[in-house]
Hints:
Largest sheet: none
Number of strands: 0
Order of helices and strands: HHHHHHHHHHHHHHHHHH
InterPro entries: Lcp-like, MPAB/Lcp_cat_dom, TAT_signal
Radius of gyration: 20 Å
Strand content: under 5%
Structural class: mainly alpha
Pfam families: MPAB_Lcp_cat
Bound molecules: protoporphyrin IX containing FE
Protein name: Oxygenase MpaB family protein
Number of domains: 2
Organism: Cryptosporangium minutisporangium
Amino acid sequence: MGNLSRRRVLTLGAALGLVGAVDPSRAWAWSSSNSIAAVDRVTDPWDVWDDATDPLVASLLKNGQIPAVNTAFDSWVKNSDALPGGLPAELTTYLQQHNALPSWADQKKLKLGAQFNKRLGTYMFLLYGLGSGIMSTVIPREARNVYYSAGGADMKSRAAKTFTYGYDLAAIDAFEPTGHFVVTSNKTRLTHAAVRHLLPQSPAWRAVTDDGARPISNGDILVTFHSLGTFVYTKLKSWGIRMSVAEEEAYLHQWQVGLHLLGVRDDFIPASWAAAKQQSSYALTPIMGPTPEGIKLAEILLGLVSEVDRGLTKGILNEFTRYVLSDKVGDWLKLPRDYAARGLIQTGWPAFVAFKEGLTPVMPNTFATFDQLLRGIAMLFLNNGTSPTYTPITIPTGNRPN
Ligand code: HEM
């Protein structure tokens, strides 16, 4: 777990709204009695990978079968699509077992979750984009894995593929036969298994990986979930966005099913937001920190957003990122300061949210600026999801070439 001091961890946890961060020197002690599986045991998720998927994908890679699998996957998009023909028999058998919702999935909750996503979509796109997306660059293992994998060399395409996942999750029919999310999750799970096989063969990755551990353990995936779902939920609450208890549970349920589909064991999946926040304080906050790779990735990602920000200054993007992630994270990433933009955000954003949520009748004079910010980021997501250049997720066959 990194070398953050206890004080720094607590301060950062509070700044991100993920209160109660745990001393980084303390071992994993999150009990699975608070998980979907509700079993009373403590297991370290950093020692758990994906036994059902990893050997299969490793063998497909060794036998040179992945390019043909990717081609066959082109026609496999909707949850109700039949499995494509021409796949290796063992992959077909695997998908017959895994291409389904878990027995505990609750369709009613998933439907409500989809409506909730739609209702708060613009806030979510902003938080996922400028919050979670940039936070991923200060999660050292994730930043290095992304940087040295094949996708790290072409971040525009990689970001587009990641948007595909977010777009498919946010769709109103995400978990229904017409939706795409179950298929997209399976493709992502197979992609992660490929990365586990490929990255350890990268000399550049090995040179910066101190513990030599196989990448993308269950622990790593939980960390990423907290940088996405737990972070977004916590921020929405702290901004005073109204959500019913049923909506809160439904939003969590979408992520619970999403984690299951990515191969996370049910005894690690938090059963409530309280359990998720507690797990996040063990898993996410103590490990955050800057890396040269993460700094480069953040610069590229913010550059991509500014391409479509409809004329907004880069200062607003940088400062909004600082505002949602803390100045500590902004300093780590060396995001340039724009104190005028910060002043505008500090007072203008709460007023904007209050007006939009009907908590005050007074329209702030900064309304147009923030409305444009929300629309610009939402367009970035939605264009990717609906344009003819929709970017399918493909399983990599190599690492970053340079
Ligand atoms: C690929 C989502 C966790 C590292 C992908 C892709 C998606 C995705 C949609 C396919 C798009 C692409 O190929 O770029 C997720 C989600 C996660 C998660 C939703 C957790 C909730 C992680 C973690 C790591 C990681 C924890 C590393 C520590 C990677 C890498 C690739 C990838 C290296 C492949 C990039 C490439 O070579 O093209 N992930 N991921 N992911 N993910 Fe994840």
